[in-house]
Structures are given as structure tokens and as C-alpha cells.
Amino acid sequence: MPVVDPAAADGVFSLLWLVIALPALGAAVLLLGGRRTDAWGHLLGVATVAGSFVLSLVAFVGLLGRGADDRAFTQHLYTWIEAGGFRVEASLLYDPLSALFLLLITGVGALIHLYSVGYMAHDPRRRRFFAYLNLFVAAMLVLVLADDYVVLFLGWEGVGLASYLLIGFWQHKPSAAVAAKKAFVVNRVGDLGMALGIMLMFATFGSTAFAEVSRVATEATDGVLTALGLLLLLAACGKSAQVPLQSWLLDAMEGPTPVSALIHAATMVTAGVYLVVRSNFIYENAPVAQTAVVVVGAVTLLWGAVIGCAKDDIKKALAGSTMSQIGYMMLAAGLGVAGYAFAIFHLLTHGFFKANMFLGAGSVMHGMDDDVDMRHYGALQKAMPVTFLTFAMGYLAIIGFPGFSGFWSKDKIIEAGFEDNLVAGLAALLGAGITAFYMTRLMLMTFFGEKRWEKGVHPHESPKVMTVPLIVLAALSVLGGVMLLGDWIVGFLAPVVGEAEHHTPAVPPIVMTLVVVAVVAVGVATAWLLVGRREVPRTAPQRVSVFTRAARADLYGDAINEALFMRPGDRFVGDLVTFDNAGVDGAVNGTAAAFGGMSGRMRRWQNGFVRSYALSVLVGALVVLVAMLAVNLA
Amino acid sequence: MSETPFIVLSAILFTIGCVGVLTRRNAIVVFMCVELMLNASNLALITFARVHGNLDGQVAAFFVMVVAAAEVVVGLAIIMTIFRTRRSASVDDASLLKY
């Protein structure tokens, strides 16, 4: 288990802060500049992220030029918090893991920014959209460059905020506002785990810096380490939409499509995987927590895949698939040293092909007057040739067609899963089959078959500014697998996550690969038999099996949340209100009413007749007199 | 000379004044009754001063007279004003200031 021990940054690495500062500055200018920046705001937004990408690329090349043991740098910016024994340094950590994330975030981010220039061209609030996108990129970069859990938490909350703002970007739609709120609330549950984890970490180790925690991690008791692992897993579940905190991701599709591509497919939702991989020094010492990660991953990968099978909304089908693919990454991350590198590998390839497909879906929606129902698509491959071809590359990558990027990354995870235990392997294998099924269904319903278009819809290819990012991402989807050449990515990440010792697997890899390809083929064939061969009805059939109905209802995720948390909470709060009204307010108001009634009766004595006042004076004087006499005589 | 007749006279005057204040409606009469009570107490003060052979009671009687004179000034002015506005000198009519 490697210890985080970075050297001070120099040369190109001392420009690290600029990678974050550029998009942060862009967001500040666009948000504070207001309408004055409307004319060129989108260009600035693209330029800042592109600038960050260039810097990341330069730093990456610099990193490759160094020895494997000399690839971690820290740049100290300032002391953020200093209170007694608690000290948080605002420092950046640049190592192979951060480097890959930097390239993914700024690279895919820049392409999606570029795409958004075209996609949001007719939106009057485009400048604000780019401000939020820049804010998101800056926060995400803080997250992956942090060298301390508290700094990571800053980025973590930053992406949560940006996600909220972007899901609810079309705030005039109540559904978008509700979806944004839901995402925020569900994420809070995960953040609670993060906050508690950080506190426990400080209480145990006296520090929250990666370097210090990784150095002393083994000194803590098993119980503490397991608790830490589970708390961080809760945080990861919230951000990465893993079961049981998965319910927000499907609703998050209310945001503009580039948001779905950037935040809810390629980058932000992978933060949970990053957290688990980054915290490898904790998980390596907490086998129970590791098993929990595997279970969460396996359950989610099937959960998401099943949901993806029944959705007619193209974005929701892709969202289900995102959930499922992140489940793969979680599963791999839970396998320990054997899986970390493959989790990150799949994360990168998924970032390429899922961003590609989401942007492709956006392009399709752009041509279909923002209709998202796949039952109204069909036969689009002629109308939108570029979108079709690029989407097809993403499709082949995600189902794991031999040679495409997803083939390499998913295959590795399934192999690693089988080596760890049979259940995890079978779940991953089954997931691959279901993935092939629902993606083929999506493909067939969208691009093939008969035209089922609404009246007055004339599909057309999107402008160049949108298709060029698609082409680049399609190329990456095809070629992403080169990272595995000679196990490059495994060796590259070894200084951060460690390297498993080589041993011959029980089943030869080639047999494994053939089995996976066979399962995928079965999935594709099933989809062809069920969807491709028949005519697709324009409205979703209502007489369907109980399984389809469950999948359409997101496997009752919302219903479970409502029954378990929302309704009891509602009832509890209702009871509290009743108690407050009847009990607390009753006592207070009752006392006030009693005194009010009493004084109402007493004031009758003030009748305004001078003679009665005189009488009361006389009576009073007599009482005093009698009292004095009584005292004196007694 | 016995002091008893003076004290009895003082008590009778005080009681007449007291009953007058409580029973009469005309403000002027009530006022006069108040004066009667004050003077009854003056008589008692002076009588006891003579009995004890010191001047304290007589001094107190002077104070009471001064206060009575001041009270007449203010009281008559109030009664005049009330009479002008309400055309009545009855103390029972001036009963607006109540609950």
C-alpha cells in the first residue's frame, strides 16, 4: 500500500493553481459581469477550460518525462485553517491519478463547452449557463487536485452546488426545479457521511491530509477503519448515484443535455469512484468496507441496467446506463489493488463514450424539436449521419464490442471480479449482457426502423460546432483502449494505488473474453428479436409484465424512499406540529387567556363614580386602623 | 377643663363630613364636607396639643389649613370647568373615566 509522499512542485508543475484559477476566473467574470458579457461570455467560457486543458496536457507530458517514483508533486498555496491542533493547508496534489482526472475533466469539459455554444445558441441565458459550467469545472478540479480531505470536501460541495444550479437551469419548469432540489437533498445524505468521516479521521489521526493519513492509517483500530470506509462509501454513493442514494440521477436529466453529459455522466458522478480509489490506504486496511463497496457496485450495476431497459426517454435510458457503468467502477474499486487501476480505466473510457452518447442524444433532440421520447424517433440514421456514426462508436464501446475502448475496460473488470469471487463476477457478466440489450434497443428505436416522427418535425444534422466535439469523442471512444497497451495504465497508477502481484488466473483470459463477447452477443440478439424485428408502438404499451412496470418506476426507488423516510418523517413532523399547537401554544395561550379574563373582571371595579372611590378609601383606612389596633392591643 | 367635649365634637364633625362625602351628589357640598373633615381633624390636633402641652399639633393644624386652602383653589377650578362643560355639578355625572 503506497504512502502519499509528494515532492514540492517546480517548473511546469508550479502552474497547477492556474488550472483551477482559469475556470474559476471565468465563472467570476461571467457571473459578476452580468449582461455586459452576454455577447462574448460563451467564448470566454470555452477559452478558460481549453486553457486549463492545455496546462493539464503540458503537466501530463512533464509527468511522463520523469521516473515512476518521482511523479507526485504538491504545491502549497496558503494555510486555510489553523486552530489549535487542527491545521488545513490549501495545497494541491498532482500525481498520476490526479493527472488522468485533470485530462478527463478539462478535455471532455472543453469539448462539451464547445458543443454547448451550439446547443444553447438560442437560450437567452446562455452566458449564465457557461458561468455555471465554468464554476463546475473549477470545483471538480479542486476536488481532484486536493491533497487534504477538507479541501476535497470544498470541491465536493462545489460540484454539488454547480450540479444543483445546472439541473435547475430551466427553472421555469417546475419539474426541473424539483429535480434540482431532489439531487441536492439526496447528495446532502452522502455529504453527511463525508463530514462525519472527516471528523472521525481528525479524531483518530489528528490530521486530514492524504500524506499524513496514508502514513498512519495502519495504526488505527479495525473498527475505526471500517467505520471510516463505510462513511466514505456513503459519501461516494451520494455523489455517484449508487444504491441506496441512486434516485436523484434519473431526475437530474431535467437539465440541459450538455449538463447531463458533463456532470451526470463523464465527471461529477465519478467523484465517488475517485474518493474510493484515492482513499485506498483506508480501504486496504478495512476488508469489511471493501466488501461493502463491491456489494454496492454489483447491486447498482444491475439496478441501473434494469432501469435502462424500460425507459423510453432517451436521456433516462442513458442515465440508467451511467448508473450501471459507475456500478462497474465501484465494483472494481472495491476489489482492492487488483481493481483500482481498472476502475479508473473504465472511468476514463466511460467518460469518453458516455459523453459522446449524451451529446449525441442532445444532437438528436436538437433535430427532433426537443422531443426525448424514443418512440417518436426511428430511421434517423439517414437524417443525421454524423450523429448516427459517432453515436454508433459510443454504442459499440459501451456494449464492449471487441477492439473498442469499453471492451478492454469492462473485460478487465469482469475478469478481476471473477478472480475475487464468483458472485461479483457473475453480476458483472450479467450486467454486460443487459447493457448490450438496452443499448441495442436504444440504437434500434432511435436510428433504425420506421419513421415515427411527430407531425411537423424535420430532423436535420446539427451544426459543426456540435458535431466536431462528437467526432473527437467518438475517436476517443474507439481508441481509449490504447491506455491498456502493455498494461500502461496499471503501471502508471501503481505509485498511487499499488500493483497486484502477477499470477496466472484460474480461467485463461482469452476464454473469459470469449464468454463476455458471447453474453454481449446474446444481449444484442435479444434486443433485435424483441425490438428490431417488430414495429415499435408510438405510445408505450400499458399491458406489460410486472418486471417492466417495476423498471419503468425506477425499481420503486422513489417509492421505497417515500415509504421508509418521507412518510414517517412527514408523520413525525405532523405530530410535532400538533404537539406544538396544542401543548406548547395551549399552555402559553391558556395562561394569557386566564390573566386576560381575570383582569377583565377586575377592571369593573373602576366604575368612574367618585363616591365609590371615596368609600373604598374609607374602607381601606378603617382596615388599616383596625389592623393597627389589633396589633397594639394583642 | 376636660378635653372630652372637644374630642367628641371633633368626632361628630368628622362623621358628618364623612357621611356627606359618601352620600351627597352635589360637588360643592361634597367639597364642603371634605373641609368639614379637615377642620374636625384640626380640632382634634389642637386639643391634643393643649393636653400634652407642646406645639407639634398646632403646627400640624397650620399645615392642614394651608393644604386645605390649596385644595380649595384647585378643586373649585375643576368643579367650575366640569360645570361649564357638562351643565351639572353632580359628582355622579362626571363618571367618564372608567373601565
What's a quick, concise take on this entry?
The complex is a heterodimer of chains A (634) and B (99). Chain A is mainly alpha-helical and 634 residues long.
Describe it for me?
The complex is a heterodimer of chains A (about 625) and B (about 100). Chain A has about 625 residues and is mainly alpha-helical. In chain A, about 70% of the residues lie in helices and about 5% in strands. Chain A has helices spanning about 15-35, 40-65, 95-120, 125-145, 150-165, 175-205, 210-215, 220-240, 245-250, 255-265, 270-280, 280-285, 285-310, 315-335, 335-365, 385-400, 405-420, 420-445, 465-480, 490-495, 510-530, 545-550, 555-600, 610-634, and strands at about 5-10, 75-85, 85-95. In chain A, strand 2 (about 75-85) and strand 3 form a beta hairpin. Chain A starts with 6 loop residues before the first strand and ends with a helix. The mean pLDDT of chain A is about 90. Chain B has three helices and no strands. In chain B, helix 1 packs antiparallel against helix 2. Chain B starts with a helix and ends in a 13-residue tail after the last helix.
Structural class of chain B: mainly alpha
CATH topology of chain B: Helix Hairpins
Give the low-confidence spans of chain A. Answer: none
Radius of gyration of chain A: 31 Å
Structural class of chain A: mainly alpha
Structural key phrases:
heterodimer; A: 634 residues; mainly alpha; three-stranded mixed sheet; 24 helices; 71% helix; globular; B: 99 residues; Helix Hairpins; NADH-quinone oxidoreductase subunit K (chain B); membrane (chain B); oxidoreductase (chain B); NUOK/Mnh_C1-like (chain B); EC 7.1.1.- (chain B)
Describe the secondary structure blueprint for this structure.
The complex is a heterodimer of chains A (634) and B (99).
Chain A: E1 7-8, H1 16-33, H2 41-64, E2 73-83, E3 86-94, H3 96-119, H4 126-145, H5 149-167, H6 174-205, H7 210-216, H8 222-240, H9 247-251, H10 257-266, H11 271-278, H12 280-283, H13 287-310, H14 314-334, H15 337-367, H16 385-399, H17 405-420, H18 422-447, H19 464-479, H20 488-497, H21 509-532, H22 546-552, H23 557-602, H24 610-633
Parallel strand pairs in A: 1-2
Antiparallel strand pairs in A: 2-3
Helix pairs in contact in A: 1-2, 1-4, 2-3, 2-4, 3-4, 3-10, 3-15, 3-19, 4-5, 5-6, 5-10, 6-8, 8-11, 8-13, 10-15, 11-14, 13-14, 13-18, 13-22, 14-15, 14-17, 14-18, 15-16, 15-17, 15-19, 15-20, 16-18, 16-19, 17-18, 18-21
Chain B: H1 4-23, H2 27-52, H3 56-86
